[in-house]
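so my prof wants the structure for this chain in the tokens format not the other one, which i didnt know existed until like an hour ago. anyway here's the sequence
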Amino acid sequence: MENYGYTKSQYSYNQQNNGPYRSEKKIPAAILGILVGWLALNKFYLGYTKEGIIPLVLNIITFGAASIIPFIEGILYLFMSDKQFDDTYVYGKKGWL
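here's what i got, hopefully its the right format
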């Protein structure tokens, strides 16, 4: 399984540092979902190719009406804690809400 730049040693280092945990992918994924969600770039950025193609096709079929889904996902990303975001989407590989 690919780890997309994250390794267990980096993850454990952040935990031992006693500093606040920061996600490297949360803010860019949220901004991509909010601003260009109709292209599903937030899914592609997180490494979900199949889950990125599905909203792209849905936007073509519905003439852009399905772009509300990535927009809502981007807002949800912002309200998650950094640790919860990484555990769910980076390490856990959960493709959908």
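also thought this was worth mentioning. The first helix runs from residue 8 to 16.
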